[in-house]
Design brief:
Belongs to the JHDM1 histone demethylase family. JHDM1D subfamily. By secondary structure, the protein is of the alpha+beta class. It is 21% helix and 22% strand. The longest helix is centred in the C-terminal third of the chain and has 11 residues, at 276-286.
């Protein structure tokens, strides 16, 4: 049996689980971690030269930026193509717009008032904002808990998915690399982390979800202990975003209810009611080939702006359309 071909400076076989980049000169493949090229940076390289070819042929050639309003920034800026979601032009336009206040639909309650009895009696049809946590059953680390603490409790080697906001595209990196990026004063890109599930880490011991979420969770209450499929980890997510992070409209987890707590920073949600008309509009918008060029909030009668400040918990009911945004004064958040 023939031996597997060896690649990279480390002379290891090709590994589909790790990001690799091909040298445009010698055509060898290299692990990004071995040649110090992160996955989200690779998209900016036009012609890649590996360390050996760099000596003979000079450094890699980078793509040239021609616009600030398209996911592909190499497209010519001839005024013929509309602004796409997440780009710097889009973010500036979003900041300048006015929206109806979410106070029109928001229910403000104390933690002790948010019970299964209340929701069963009155329903859960509108977002609930809570600033007084007593009685909610929510346990959290203190506001001094930092992103470096997250790294310590979760582990820096954990591979995570981050969103390159300007391209609205995912890439993988180690948590330690993201924390290093997050703590820099100058960030050439806006990267957003929204999918760090930490139920199986040491950080899980620091967080208890609200009582109402545990009592009404189908996964917690109805998942068979003897199921062939393991119980999914969907209760505890840590979101970390920097200024101008934007996530386009979506329905959380296939229509589930969700809760958010802003430990520090500030987060803005744009909320749309899940009416039959809006559901039909969302279906058409989400399957459209030019989805990124159309702000879904423009398709509906009302899109509400909900500013969630530090120390506030927000409960969002089933199927509400949500888009998230971090903005102003570099209010990065967790």
């Amino acid at each position: 049996m023939a031996a597997a071909p060896l690649y990279c400076v480390c002379r290891q076989p090709y590994d589909v689980s790790r990001f690799m980049i091909e040298c445009d000169i010698c055509k060898d493949w290299f692990h990004g971690s071995c040649v110090h090229v992160e996955e989200h940076h690779a998209v900016d390289i036009d012609v890649y030269h590996c360390p050996n070819c760099d000596v003979k042929h000079g450094p890699s050639l980078m793509k040239r930026r021609n616009n600030w309003h398209r996911h592909d920034y190499t497209e010519p800026d001839d005024g013929s193509k509309p602004v796409q979601a997440g780009t710097s032009v889009f973010v500036k336009q979003l900041q300048q717009r006015t929206f109806p206040s979410a106070e029109e639909i928001l229910i403000r309650m104390k933690g002790e008032q948010v019970t299964t009895r209340y929701l069963e009696r009155h329903g859960f049809n509108y977002p609930i904002a809570i600033t007084e946590m007593e009685g909610l059953g929510l346990k959290l680390p203190p506001p001094t808990f930092s992103v470096k603490d997250v790294e310590q409790y979760v582990g820096g080697d954990k591979v995570i998915d981050v969103i390159d906001v300007a391209r609205q595209a995912d890439s993988k990196m180690k948590l330690s690399e993201f924390i290093k990026y997050f703590t820099k004063h100058h960030r050439p890109k806006v990267l957003n982390l929204i999918s760090l599930e930490f139920s199986d880490t040491k950080m899980s011991e620091l967080v208890e979800v609200p009582d109402v979420a545990k009592k009404m969770s189908w996964v917690e209450n109805y998942w068979p202990d003897d199921s062939f499929f393991p119980k999914p980890f969907v209760q505890k997510y840590c979101l970390m975003g920097v200024k101008d992070s934007y996530t386009d409209f979506h329905i959380d987890f296939g229509g589930t209810s969700v809760w958010y707590h802003v430990l520090w920073g500030e987060k803005i949600f744009y909320l749309i009611k899940p009416t039959p008309t809006n559901l039909a509009l969302y279906e058409a918008w989400s399957s459209s080939p030019n989805q990124s060029e159309v702000f879904f909030g423009n398709k509906v009668d009302k899109c509400y702006k909900c500013v969630v400040t530090q120390g506030t918990t927000l409960l969002i009911p089933t199927a509400v359309f949500v888009t998230g945004f971090l903005q102003s004064l570099d209010k990065s958040g967790i």
